[in-house]
Structures are given as C-alpha cells and as structure tokens.
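re: ur question from earlier - yeah i can do the single chain one, its not a big deal. heres the input i used so u can compare w yours
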Amino acid sequence: MAAVLYIVIPCYNEEAVLPITAPMFLEKLRALIAAGKISEESRVLFVNDGSRDRTWDIILELADSDPHYLGISQSRNRGHQNAVLAGLMEARDRCDITISIDCDGQDDINAMDQMVDAYLDGCEVVYGVRSSRETDTFFKRFTAQGFYKFLASMGAEVVYNHADYRLISARVLQEFANFREVNLFLRGLVPLVGFKSTTVSYSRAERLAGESHYPLKKMIALAVDGITSLSVKPLRLITGFGVVVAMLSFVGVLWALIAALCGRTVAGWASMTCIVCFVSGVQLICLGIIGEYIGKIYMETKQRPRYIISERSWERQEPRKKQES
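and the output i got, formated as tokens:
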C-alpha cells in the first residue's frame, strides 16, 4: 500500500505568492500519486501563522476548490518554527510521511521525488540541503555560512546548509512529540531524535513573489535560540574566561603588592579606570549570557502551549456537506 504524504507549508502574509506556488505543490503531489509513490489520500496542508492579509481566505478558497488542499490557522502569529510544528503534529496521525517546505517557492519541489525514494529505501528522515548559495548576496551568503559554523562550534547538532525542507516519517514524529521544548529550533531538535537519515541536495531559486519574512534580526534570534536550546557551551566558555581573568587579576595583585613594598607605586586614575571598565564589561557580558539561559528556563517552566489552532478548513466544510446532503 502506498504511503500517505502530507506536504506541510507554513504561511505568514503570503497572499502574493500563495496563488502561484499552491498549484505547483498540488501538481507535484499529483505527479507522485500518478507515479505510484504515494497514496491518493495524500494532501497539501497549509498552516496560517496569524497572517494579517488574505492568506487564510486564499487557503480556504483552495480547500474549497480541491480536496487535496487542507488548511489550519493558528490563533495568532507564533513564528515560523511553531507554525511548522503545528502542521507536523496535526499531520502525524493522518499520514505516513510529511515534507515541510516554505511557501515562497525557493526550495526545489522536485527534490521531493528523491526524498520519497529515500524513504522507500528505508530512511525515516531526509534533509534537504542546498548545493550552493550562488543566488544569495555576499552578505547573505557570509552570514548564513557563519550561522551554521557558529552553531556547530557552540555544540548544536545541525546539518550544514539545511533549513526546514525535510521529510519526516510519522514514526519519527510520534517520538518527536515527546520533545516538549517551548523554545523551538527544529533544525537542531530533529537530529536528536535519531533514526536512519540521509540528505538530498537541491538548488535554491529566488523568491517567486512577495517579500522575505526572515531578515537578519530573525536569523540572529534563531541562532540564539538554537545555541541556548541545544548547548551549554557558552556557559562553560564564560566560566573559562572568568578563570583566565581571575588569574590575570591575581598576577596584577601580586605585581601591585611587590611594587608597593618596593616603594615604586605611582598614583594614577587611568590604569584603575581601564581595569574597572574591563572587569565590569566582562561581568555584564557574562550576566547577559546567564540571563539568556535563565529566561529560557523561565519560559520552559511555564509550559505554555507552543501553538493553538483556531480553525481547520475541513471543520468548516463538514457542516456545509451535511446541509447539502
């Protein structure tokens, strides 16, 4: 029996690009069905992440036009990672495999064929990995590559040049549901689940329409979430740095005592000011890093829901079908 596939697509203010990419996703789904790789029960699942434009209205129109389109809407905007998680958790009991992909059309949908083939060969997780960054600006390429290298150096387990284009089996999702983190970084959490995995390379294109919703500010915030959610290495680094500063300070104290005993001391405010400013700066940086971890602990202990689904397209359609019958 062919596997049921759900293509999970997070959407935030995508009214410009959704009418362009939605038919592309449906066409790919039908092609996979026609090839006998997936079941006719497979679906395209859009996740509206509290959009302020007509994104949800467009999703409902798509759901009315073809049963292969489904949509869920969050009660408010909760961010890309939470939107992907909402779609995956909604789909896990309805399908055998999921493929998460962004709505903007930049990720090559033809890579889905290789992903499904890898699943049929026994892989439970298939990561979509960019083969190059030729379409990126120098700044974007430099910051993105630095992002992955920095995460790896901080101890976060990530797949290089992989974002959130991946295939995950329902079996893996059932285990992934046991990860209860509120501060989500899916790129680092999925590898922790384990199971047999592989990668598929693809070329990334330009955004088909609309504007990017992932500027540098959000990228930095995602990196901070990834590091503090998956690694305690920054805490160990500031501990080591503190030891080094303490040793240098001890040497400085010895030097000051020897100079005082030898009568070579000269009153001066410049050296004292520099030392105070340096130590104070180090302390504030260390407190900031520790505070970031404490803030994460604070949010985790609240155990707030990571997503709240306010509407489902099929729930809206069911009363209509009853009235028609």
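The chain has two domains: 5-230+312-324, 233-302. not sure if urs matches, ping me
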